[in-house]
Amino acid sequence: MHFHDCFVQGCDASILIDGPSAEKTAAPNRALRGFEVIDDAKAQLEAACPGLVSCADILTLAARDTVVLTGRLTYSVPTGRRDGRISPASEAANLPGFRDSIETQKQQFADKGLTVQDLVTLVASKEKPGLACQIIFAFHWNCFMLSFRNLCRRAHHWDSAVPALQIQALQLHHSWRRCRPDH
């Protein structure tokens, strides 16, 4: 959810705004879950300290805490974000999809000031656990796929794939460098 929010208009929690033509209703966001968790956190914080914590900060901290709970990484995030006030569904059309070509995704990330390493790390880790191998295979990178045969128990049985967060950014980066045609 955090990725979908930040990629569209920045980390402004505009993904949380309700409405018939809001980002939340856009096709790429229809499968997102957990809105009630953020709503509950906001309600509890408002009861304790009204008007102090933005939805954007809650969403960012929830994303960070989810990563921390995996035991893989801990990091601090600055707070003080302001909530977005507009949320057009049309803006979500530029979210990268795993069926987009790698060139399209690279351009989408570059347009946001992000690198190829960011692309591989974020796209693989944002999906539900177990889908990382499916996403990687969907890119049709023959060399890249070979690098992950040890991580994906059976290439054509997605349910047996390792959780997405087990594929670490460094492994992905080294595989990308090895497989690039210009390297």
From TrEMBL:
Reaction catalysis annotation: 2 a phenolic donor + H2O2 = 2 a phenolic radical donor + 2 H2O
Taxonomy, superkingdom: Eukaryota
Protein name as it appears in the record: peroxidase
GO biological process: response to oxidative stress
Active site location: H4
GO molecular function terms listed in the Swiss-Prot or TrEMBL record: heme binding; lactoperoxidase activity; metal ion binding
Binding site residues for substrate: P96
Organism per entry: Kalanchoe fedtschenkoi (Lavender scallops)
Disulfide topology: C6-C11
Binding site for Ca(2+): D5, V8, G10, D12, S14, E23
UniProt family annotation: Belongs to the peroxidase family.
Top EC class of this enzyme: oxidoreductase
Needed co-factor(s): heme b; Ca(2+)
UniProt feature coiled coil, ranges: none
InterPro entries per UniProt: Haem_peroxidase, Haem_peroxidase_sf, Peroxidase_pln
E.C. number(s) listed in UniProt: 1.11.1.7
Pfam families, alphabetized: peroxidase
Source taxonomy: Eukaryota, Viridiplantae, Streptophyta, Embryophyta, Tracheophyta
Keyword terms of this UniProt record: Calcium, Disulfide bond, Heme, Iron, Metal-binding, Oxidoreductase, Peroxidase
Residues annotated as domain Plant heme peroxidase family profile: 1-183
Transmembrane recorded as keyword: no
UniProt entry tagged with the keyword Zinc-finger: no
